[in-house]
# Entry
Amino acid sequence: MGVKGYPIMLNLYLTTKKTHFVPSDDVIEETLRYLKQLLIIGEYDEKSQSYAPGREVATLFSPDPWEELLPAELTFENFTVRALGPERFLPERQLAPAFSSTCRMCGDRLDDKSLDAALERLAYFPVDRFVYDCPSCRNVLELKDINFGQATAVARFWLYIEGVATSRLNHPLLDHLARLLGFPLLVVPEHVEDEEGWF
Ligand SMILES: [Zn+2]
# Structure
């Protein structure tokens, strides 16, 4: 359960550690063609600009959770490509309480409320303008001065997979995608409250 009592939804960003990198349109097309051929992604929906899962979507995931998860859980809700616009901090929709963030200067746990306010400003300001005053040591922190307790990235390009049951993906498949895209892939998980899935 999330902070407000909503169920938690897991989303994944497949992105790169190379902050400014955006593959060419041809490379992105080829990558999407590959995922379509494997039937991992299916129909494209113009309205949401996202792909539905394909018939073989389960192969996106590492074989080991297959034993713990039901076949019906080895899927996603939708898949989108983001390849334009400024650099963003990822995961961009996760709230402070879902991280276990500590200050790299003093090691103290950061305050959720003030960190949320700082993370919210990232939606409007460039990532390099991020500042956060550590409530413990009073140092002015940049993003790199915060240990978020999980994988994070600053990127201009990513594949976004919403609504998965596990972050364990099929490694040989990731390696192949990395070769197609031309950079090692970094998987950034995002835990958000699933307000739509709450009945
Ligand atoms: Zn500190």
The longest helix spans residues 25-37. Residues 69 and 129 are 42 Å apart (CA to CA).
